[in-house]
Design goal:
- By secondary structure, the chain is mainly alpha-helical.
- Among the domains are: 57 residues, Arc Repressor Mutant, subunit A, CATH 1.10.10; 77 residues, no CATH class.
- Helix content is 48%, strand content 10%.
- A two-stranded antiparallel ribbon has the order 1-2. A two-stranded antiparallel ribbon has the order 3-4.
- A hairpin with a 6-residue loop joins strand 1 and strand 2.
- The protein is flat.
Length: 229
């Protein structure tokens, strides 16, 4: 048995794909190589296992650290974890999953600086009166203007007996807005108005100047002593 036959037999025992023989065309100077059975162009990558899917997610979370992603995904830690991570990155289905998740992250809506300023301005000028109609009744949430809804942090509906013993229950709706003070503080910093002013009286100023003079005198004395030596 030749070396080529031994190699072919070993691949057969291991279940590896065999190289297809060349198909020679009579009376022609070229040959046509048949494609391997597992190289069909329309064959899609196999589905991810749960661990592979976790690896793809952790790879993006860790900023592209494949070793740490493999460790977090539950692959066996140890000296071979780096080899495992490199092997995972060579798999077509994992590469496709990472690329798809990266595109999804990049396509998410991110506020611009102007939009952040607009949202803070909306909070700073919010008016809870916009939540009520002319008769003082609370409007349903879907009837509130969009600008008002954006200022609401949460709502809570509580059913309670306001007057004990009368058997009648009342529905109380609590509306919590985002902090208007925080929005005003943000806008103050943006416009340069959040400046801390410290008033220095004459007594404090004189003590500061005296302290500086003492430090300067002590420095001059150390320099004279080092020169005398």
């Amino acid at each position: 048995m030749t070396d080529e036959e031994l190699k072919a037999r070993a691949k057969q025992l291991l279940g590896l794909p065999q190289r297809q023989p060349d198909l020679h065309v009579p009376n022609a100077s070229c040959c046509i190589q048949l494609p391997a059975f597992n190289a069909m162009p329309d064959q899609s990558p196999p589905a991810l296992t749960l661990r592979e899917e976790r690896f793809a997610v952790e790879f993006l979370i860790t900023g592209g650290n494949a070793t740490e992603a493999a460790r977090r995904a539950g692959y066996r830690d140890g000296p071979g974890i780096r080899v495992t991570a490199r092997r995972l990155l060579t798999k077509a289905n994992i590469q496709a999953a990472i690329a798809e998740r990266r595109r999804s992250i990049l396509s998410e809506r991110i506020l611009t600086a102007d939009e952040v300023l607009q949202e803070q301005s909306r909070l700073a000028s919010s008016d809870i009166g916009a939540c009520y109609d002319a008769a003082g009744n609370l409007l349903p949430i879907h009837q509130l203007p969009a600008d008002v809804r954006r200022c609401i942090a949460s709502t809570k509906t509580v059913i309670r007996n306001m007057a004990g013993g009368d058997g009648h229950t009342d529905t109380v709706v609590e509306i919590k807005f985002w902090s208007k003070g925080d929005a005003l503080a943000f806008l103050g910093r943006y416009h340069g108005q959040d400046v801390q002013r410290v008033e220095v009286t004459g007594d404090i100023l004189s003590r500061l100047l005296a302290g500086r003079q003492r430090i300067a005198e002590a420095k001059r004395q150390r320099e004279r002593m080092s020169t005398d030596r």
